[in-house]
Amino acid sequence: MLPDLLRNAKRAAVPAAMLLAAATLPGAATAQDSDLGLFGLDLKGSLGEGRHQRYVAPLTNPLFNESPYITTEARLIYFHHELPDDFVTNGGNVDLVALQLRLAITERLGFIATKDGYADFDFDSVLPDEDGFANIAFGFKYALITEPETESILSVGLRYEIPIEDLETGGIELQGNGDGFLNPFITGATTFGKVGVQTSFGANIALDQDEDTSILHYSVHLNYEVTPQLFPLIEVNGFTPFDNGERLTGALGEVDGVDVLNFGSEDRDTTVTVGGGLRYRFTDNFQLGVGAETPITDKDDTIFDWRAYVDLVASF
Fold first, then answer.
1. Phi then psi for 311, rounded to 5 degrees?
2. How far is residue 247's CA from residue 224's CA, in Å, rounded to a whole number?
3. What are 160-173's pLDDT values in tens digits?
4. Of 153, 103, 95, 144, which is closest to residue 123 (Cα–Cα)?
5. pLDDT tens digit string along 58-78?
């Protein structure tokens, strides 16, 4: 339940705090290059003096809509996810707390750990409630093009998702028990006056094609600078299967978990969502995000009715 989620969030926040603390230890920077931190890493990455200034992290689709900026940060995420009433459980909800970590190795190269977390499922009927840990995904991204003077950047990346096999209800594996996923992606951002634009595209490729469904994912993010601190935003996300699994068949084989979950459905369809909200930058290093998201495609094809987000981004 929610208290358990918060306790897990607190435990997950410890390594993030250690990472940020280590990055700012006295003596971490050399006299020759103040941007170099622990072990000689360029912890500022894309950001800082003489580099990019307008970093507004995306809010919805946090697992796949990766920012092109190379950053050192911890992002604590909470979302509340409502299931459609037409789903086999006649509705219900999912609460998830997750922690994303990113580490800038150089100005162009970064390590990312962007999927983890603890989920609590509360079904209205049919299936027993369940809670447990989500799969873990990590990898690297590299900035091919970086132009701070125009606030333009283009990056490519690759993630591997490790199957944890910790979420199951009523005999249904909510994440699958295959060999995980490879997720190559490309992501870019630029600005037009006070409007910021970010797009991303990638493929989440199941390594066991019988167990899990492979999808294409794509996102568009727009934000507007009302003040240097306040940025309303709107985002559109899409998830299109290109190789369906064979694990979930029949009536349930027509739906899937969109992003966090993968049922290996045999006949999953495309889901497109739209979301909105805002980001508030307390300082250059701390951002708060709040917003919501809902599908604009047929809700019969997904377990997604609507979702509300709150996140906190603490960057170096």
1. -145, 160
2. 43
3. 999 987 788 887 78
4. 95
5. 999 999 999 999 999 999 999
CB burial string 46-76: b at 16+ within 10 A, e below = bbbeebbebbbbbbbbbbbbbbbbbbbbbbb
Q: Which residue has the tokens 């979702």?
A: 307
Residue (of 176, 234, 173) closest to 206 by Cα position: 176
Q: Which domain holds residue 151?
A: 2-315
Tokens 């050399």 correspond to 30
- Backbone angles phi and psi of 11, in degrees to 5: -65, -40
Total domains in the fold of the chain: 1
**CB 259 within 8 Å of CB 105:** no
Q: CA nearest 29: which of 19, 21, 40? A: 40
CATH of the domain at 100: 2.40.160.40
Lowest-confidence region among 23-37, 67-81, 203-217: 23-37
Instruction: Write out 40-67 in H/E/C secondary structure.
Output: HCECCCCECCCCECCCCCCCCCCCCCCC
| Residue 298 falls in which region: left (phi positive, over 0), alpha (psi -120 to 50) or beta | beta
Q: Which residue has the tokens 């509360």?
A: 122
- Total-model pTM: 0.85
Burial level of 27, CB count in 10 A (0-12/13-18/19+)? exposed
| DSSP helix/strand/coil, 158 | strand
Q: How far apart are CA 145 and CA 152, in angstroms?
A: 8
User: Secondary structure of the chain: what % helix, strand, coil (to 5)?
Assistant: 10, 50, 40
Do 137 and 183 touch, CB atoms closer than 8 A? Answer: yes
